[in-house]
Amino acid sequence: MAASASRRTLPGWALHEVAGAGRENLDAQHVARYDAKEDGGAAEEVAMLRRNGLDPDASVVDLGAGTGQFALAVAPVCGQVAAVDVSPIMLARLRVKVEAADLRNVDVVEAGFLSYEREGPPADLVYSRLALHHLPDFWKGVALQRIRDMLAPGGVFRLSDAVYHFDAAEADERIEAWCATAGAPVDDEWTRAEYEEHVRDEHSTYTWLLEPMIERAGFAIEQAEYADDGIFAQYLARAT
Length: 240
Description:
Elements: E1 2-4, H1 28-37, H2 42-51, E2 59-63, H3 69-74, E3 80-85, H4 88-101, E4 106-110, E5 123-129, H5 137-150, E6 151-162, H6 171-179, H7 192-201, H8 207-216, E7 219-226, E8 232-239
Parallel strand pairs: 1-4, 2-3, 2-5, 3-4, 5-6
Antiparallel strand pairs: 6-8, 7-8
Helix pairs in contact: 5-8
């Protein structure tokens, strides 16, 4: 494993990505129990991506890699993985897991959507799960353009996130219904307080705002899936 940091100098008006990363992602106790609380279905994601062109020579960027569930799952079936995150605590956990798995093709990078600088040839796949919502909409647009710029033509962008698929008039009902599904134990379930914190302090947007941003950045959305609760969405988009 090669460990590196790849970032550019940002102007004074730029967003501070670490400060906006979410309180919980900078909390060592939360990071330690994250894998027990959140199963990203990484094996299923890798299988789906292989059906959509991921090959053994592919170069992959995992933006918002967190504890590395996807990075560790995809590394054995691709050429190189850049596992990128702004949280030093998340990255410390990820490095331990990468070393334990003896993965030599994973580069752990401390950076974010707005600061990661791609080195070498364009990537074939950019993957992001439950991370883009940490950026306000203006910065989502910037991030999406940067993602397009780091991909080869025809490259794949896989995005899974909390994206609201309902009208603004339904917001009270939908958000309250989602918060009511929360569990109680903080160690292995998401609590109501954590759901409320997400809605209040983070930046999930509407599908009908995000999807035009994805297309304007230079992607064709090939698949869009929406959870029945109206809270989560998944996209498979290809660089045009």
